[in-house]
Amino acid sequence: MKGRKKWLSKLWMGLIFLFFYAPIAYIVVFSFNSGRSLTRMDGFSLQWYERMFSNGDMMDAMFYTILVAVIATVVSTIIGTVAAIGLSKSSRVLKTIVERVNDLPIMNPEIVTAIGLLMFFSALGVRKGLLTMILAHVMFCTPYVMLSVSPKLRSLDPNLADACMDLGATPWQALTKVIVPQIMPGIVSGALIAFTMSFDDFIISYFVTGNGVSNISILVYTMSKRINPSINALSTVVILLITVVLILVNLIPAMKERSEKKREERMEQV
Fold it and tell me: Which residue segments constitute the domains of the chain, with CATH numbers given?
């Protein structure tokens, strides 16, 4: 009976993985299709990758997507981390109010946020383009960073910074040498969430962009009305980029931890 349950659980897990990853595998496979069909393989070819890299609109969309995602991630991570650290030292009433306000952009439907930003920029007379897209992405990415960093701060000893300064450290040294390393996992998680949210955002980007600035999601939306296998090639490149980023984010800390262990072992031997 136990063996049967174990077999069924493995089958269930396999079906779940198939449900999640079969569409990704489908896109990758058909990106190498020699024909235009999206349902039948006619042979192996790299022509859609050649057309993608020779297509100026696709390359511009890729550039703007990465540029906006990187800038929004860096800025929102800094703002969110500093805000979370400052909030951890605030009064309980202020902390509760700010946390509830911080939850609004996360819980608010994107279409409402997009229309609000559109009206806000229009009221200020700001010309829509790259700047408005970056500002919008920073706005909706920052709450996710704060939400990721705050639990790490709550797990720290509240007297840790005071103890560091009692030992001779300046406030800046206590922040950069002690507090930030302790909450680094939360900062990295928040940065990854911010990058992902910015990279694949469509609704807010569609409402706040202009002057020929479009990201990948907007480009795919405009191309989805007609059959274009280059979308598969573009999607495969995006999947590859995200996979590389995830591997590096998980591999670098492991390598760093391994090197520290080796260093400690050498010190013990000496």
Answer: 56-216 (1.10.3720.10)
